Amino acid sequence: MRFIESFPLTIILVLFITAFVMPLIKSTKIVKCLSLLSMTIVMILALVNLIFVINEGEYLYRIGHFNAPYGIEFRIGIIEAMMGLLFTFVALMIIWYSVYSIEKEIKQSKVSLYYLLINILIGSLLGVVYSNDLFNCFVFIEVGTLASCGTIIVKDKKENMKATMKYLIMSCLGSGLVLMGIAYLYSMTGHLNIDSIHRVLINCYLNYPNAVLISIVLFIIGLGVKSAMFPLHNWLPDAHSSAPTSSSAILSSLVLKGFVFLLIKILFRLFGMEILEYYSVLNIVLILGSLGMIMGSVFAIFQKNIKRVIAYSTVAQMGYIFLGIGLGTDIGVPIAIFHIIGHAVTKSALFLLVGSMIEQTGHKTLEHFKGIGKEMPLTLGLFSIGALSMIGIPILPGFISKWYLSLASIAAGDTILILVILVSSLLNAVYYFPIIINGFFGEENLKGKVYKSKSKPLKEMMPVIFLVISMVFVGLTSSGIINLINQGFK
After folding, report:
1. pLDDT at residue number 157
2. What pLDDT, in 10s, does the model give residues 162-188?
3. Residue 215 CA: distances (Å) to CA of 34, 201, 258, 323
4. Is the pLDDT at 443 greater than 80, yes or no?
5. Which of 276-280, 404-408, 440-444 has the highest mean pLDDT?
6. Distance set, CA 188 to CA 207, 210, 211, 342 (Å)
7. Rg of the chain over CA atoms, in angstroms?
8. pLDDT tens digits, residue range 51-96?
9. How far does CA 467 lie from the centroid of its chain?
10. pLDDT, mean over the chain
11. Is 66 helix (H, G, I), strand (E, B) or coil?
């Protein structure tokens, strides 16, 4: 069974190799089938890998002839295996949805390029998740960033080009800061392997107090830019709202999560709590996370474009993840990871559902979605379930995250954070409930609307239905998922 240890590398190779085969195929139908097939294969491999890790424990996989710290290695624990399954499953559902809709948003001649970019992007994000080598992570970050930009600009409109340039400039700034942080650590430890850096750093950080502090701040700001930490989020609304629907779903649900997961690895595995407590840097993350939770929702309330509402909601939801990271406790960090899972399946579904509404109505502004519940009852019904999770209705994963973050705040003695979480939830309700209420109710809203007149065929809605089912499943099985995360975090 030890051959299963090669599955993470196999997953990345399958995605990269199939990506570069796609431009050689002239038939877009075959390209779509290849993309679906490759993502299905890697999802199955990721599932087998997770079961293996749960039963056998975490393992290190050497790539090449040299052992760490000189060679490259993957470190696969329970959390990395869970992230692998999450990323491949969500990507598969989004690709499945895009098969029916992508040609309505981009030129047919660019379809092969689009699926090439998607496969490279998912492969790069998994490389970031699996790698135990900082420079290897940096290489995957850069490849993923370029692929992300490609999935936005492929729409080939003025607003996409502007959004892509903004995203690329901000992302390059973040990448540069991350590279500087790596350089500082290498100069102090002589290593790039995460475990080796930690072993050396824990014994010598007092000899380089300023250099260690600078490196921590560089990683927080650099990866904060890439994962939309408030106030470094200003690239996100334009990029997520102008991109093709499937790209918006991937950017919000997976790309941000890959980078914030790397930040978690660097803070808690590379530096460790002893160093973080010495410098008290987590307080910065805690404050910025709290501000993001509030301000992201405030900005969302004033938006007229429905995709920008969902985009600013992502800023608020990332705030919950940074709040858990900032608490830095045995409850806070695992719940931040749980929220990564819950938000990934929820927000991907929300973006796809909003994309369906825009596609069927030809409009983006909230005003035009009044009465949409009569014309697209299934679509708005599924949207309502996702929105209720974001608001924090019991059983759903959004509520689970907020409940445990509240408990973590009490345990840490920061009871004021409960008020922040409560206010953020109320603000979530302010911009989600009007969409649902105006969509389903009101004589003026429903007047002249024809029942199911704009509904999409059930086969086109199946991937979104699976995402919503998986979201409810995450909420119902939250205690088991959190227990697994706790096992992997120790």
Report:
1. 77
2. 888 888 888 889 989 999 999 988 888
3. 42, 12, 20, 21
4. no
5. 404-408
6. 9, 11, 8, 38
7. 22
8. 999 888 888 888 877 776 677 888 888 999 999 999 999 999 999 9
9. 14
10. 87
11. coil
303-340 pLDDT per residue, tens: 888 888 888 888 899 999 999 998 888 888 899 999 99
Burial group, residue 24, by CB count within 10 angstroms (0-12, 13-18, 19+): exposed
CA 4, CA 307: separation in Å to the nearest integer? 40
Report the number of secondary-structure helices (H) and strands (E) in the chain: 22, 2
Q: Is 128:264 a contact under the CB 8 Å cutoff?
A: no
The pLDDT of residue 25 is: 84
Q: Which residues contact 147 (CB under 8 A, 6 or more apart)?
A: 117, 118, 120, 121, 124
N- to C-terminal Cα separation, the chain: 25
The phi, psi pair for 190, rounded to 5°, reads: 75, 15
Of the candidates 343, 390, 335, 434, the residue with the CA atom closest to the CA atom of residue 79: 335
My answer on whether omega of the bond before 209 falls inside 30° of 0, hence cis, is: no
pLDDT higher than threshold 90 for residue 244: no
What's the confidence (pLDDT) of residue 450?
67
d(CA 324, CA 339): 9
What confidence tier does 102 reach under pLDDT thresholds 50, 70, 90? confident
What share of the chain has pLDDT > 90, as a percent? Answer: 28
Give the tokens for residue 264. Answer: 């978690």
Rounded to an integer, the average pLDDT of 370-399 is 86
Q: Locate tokens 């119902």: which residue?
A: 476
Quickly list DSSP for 409-420: HHHTT-THHHHH
Question: Residue ranges of the domains in the chain?
Answer: 280-490
Q: What is the pLDDT of residue 272?
A: 84
Q: Do 308 and 243 touch, CB atoms closer than 8 A? A: no
